[in-house]
Amino acid sequence: MTRAAARGVILTAEEIVPGEEIARDPGMTAIPGFLVRAVAEAPGGAWPCSCHPAYGVDEEGMRRYMELSASAEGLERYLRETAPKAAAR
Prior knowledge:
Helix content: 40-55%
Strand order of the largest sheet: 1-2
Shape: extended
Number of helices: 4
Number of strands: 2
Radius of gyration: 16 Å
Order of helices and strands: HEHEHH
Largest sheet: 2 strands, parallel
Structural class: alpha+beta
């Protein structure tokens, strides 16, 4: 967190909710607001991993990631091929 404190963080979230909802259970907030410089809504952003309760692990997607990410070239290919699909989720 010390590096984040110096520059701040850009937070991505499956869904942006009203501040009142966050205030109801502030203990669920993992990153203090004063460290956040920007928030971007990114539905499906955890894919192929899970984001409970929105969606579970995509096992085939994880297998593909593990296979291709073994090399820099493979990871680049994986990101190129899956980014448009992930954005559409």
